[in-house]
Design a protein that fits this description.
The complex is a heterodimer. By secondary structure, chain A is an all-alpha fold. Helix content of chain A is about 75%, strand content about 0%. Chain A is built from 12 helices and no strands. The two termini of chain A are about 35 Å apart. Chain B has 13 helices and no strands. Chain B is mostly helical. Classes of the chains: A mainly alpha, B mainly alpha. At the A-B interface, helix 5, helix 6, helix 10, helix 11 and helix 12 of A face helix 1, helix 5, helix 6, helix 10 and helix 11 of B.
Amino acid sequence: MSTTQTIEDIAQAEQGTSLWKDAWLRLRQNHLAVFGLVVLVLFIVIALLTPWIAPYSYQAQDLELGASPPSAAHWLGTDIFGRDLMTQIMYGGRISLAVGFVATAVALLIGVTWGAIAGYVGGRTDAVMMRLVDILYALPFMIFIVLLTVVFGRNMLLLFLAIGAVEWLTMARIMRGQVQSLRQQEFVEAAMSLGLSPATLIRRHLVPNALGPIIVYTTLTIPNVMLLEAFLSFLGLGIQPPQTSWGLLISYGAETMEEYPWLLIFPGIALTLTLFSLNFLGDGLRDALDVRGAKD
Amino acid sequence: MLRFISLRLLQAIPVILVVITVTFFLVRIAPGGPFDSEKAVTREVKAALEAQYKLNLPLFQQYTAYLGDLAHGDLGPSFKYPGRSVNELIAAGFPVTAELGFYALLVALCIGGLAGIIAALKPNTAQDYVPMSLAMIGICMPSFLLGPLLVLIFGIYLDWLPVSGWGDIPGDKILPSITLGAGYAAYIARLGRAGMLEVLSQDYIRTARAKGLPEWQVVLKHSLRGGLIPVVAFLGPAFAGLLAGSFVVETIFQIPGLGRFYVQAAFNRDYTMILGTTVFLSVLIVLFNLLSDVLAAWMNPRLRAQYGQ
């Protein structure tokens, strides 16, 4: 069985598979990564469709019912206000995932631009830009983010920006290393001698060729970001009610876990499962795209 | 080695200056003065208070005054606890946090290091998969989830261990230390495994085996030092993480440490406390990073040769 599959793979490879198709074939062999991908896609689809598929409305309370364990009417139970926990987790997941993806996108944008410019221009500009990254690297960012929530108040936009601003540093380093090695290659020299403007060269040739490490690192950044959001929300410094997130649900659950343990356990499973999936997928992508040095 | 240390010390100075400056001005641009919330304060009282806290001076003079005080190790008075200085609050909270961090690091190093070594000795067998799967769980299970779960299982259902306090009842330090250390144990296990695997495939290990050394000597005397370099280099960032983690763990277990003070200061908008603690923790983190870099360099013969003995 496995031999035939390998032969098929080789046959396909000889038909001239692209780098991406090849990587996809390798990724498919990795069961944990596939599991991660499936869970992730499922959660994202649920998050996108939540307003239409949530079993109850987000505000619906049933004070007479109060906190009740999982039942046929409420699969994951209800909280102390009689709100359906599954609905809460679905809406919380929308925010947790949104923070994860948007903040990572911010980090991606800043980091890739910064690293590409530093690596492309080189010389003194590069030295100054990367020195700045080194200094920022040494700053205790967890503490700074708490400070930022004090200064600018606790709102979600700030959370996106603050987390994104922390996570771009590694991205910039990876991108710079990639660009530096790509610059030595003939096709880049050819493009330069054809008179391409630096911006076009970076956009059309350097970034696409550095995509592998960027994708891997992005996948590994999302769980870090989600963890950070949950951490802040748990402390009460992140997402504020009436909005909710998995971190906030866990913090509520921890308060009442003695009587109503399901309020802690189910949001905990949702968060842990997502982090698991992203980490497995990231590890799998690293192997599939054969990226070295993009450790978490 | 001395050159390496002094070089790194020189690099640390701008970082610390940036931290102090950024923190100071961030706190100053925060909306609302620290005394705005107190209702019945007359203008005279407010002016007197502001004079006492040097808030009536131009911003740049406040900054230089703060730097001057800082040079004497004075972090200023607390805005919210009248009559108490930030130094006193840090002196009260930090020993507790340091002890918690120390135990957590001990848990992380012992469990994580051991798991990493065991896994690396027989890669791709059950002896490798079991600890590494546990490590993956450890990485994905945040402390604010692990803590309450441990309390639920060991504190409430089994009723084996106390669930709050620090040093009041015997055994109340166990759960917080494990909660804080578990995630780092997981990271250390992964790093230790990777480092040991690399070292164990080196020629000099084959030589050691070829001359008939028992396996435990190969592992302990020849591989450990090289294999654990990544772990030691990780200790610097881990220390920063432990301090941040103490915010959560001290909140969960109601431990009167610096982490809890910091979060409370964030809620109370106690600006001087925030400023002072941020500066204190940042300097500490920068110094610890330095220490872990120096230690890792000392363990690495190539780097040692590069910088001379």
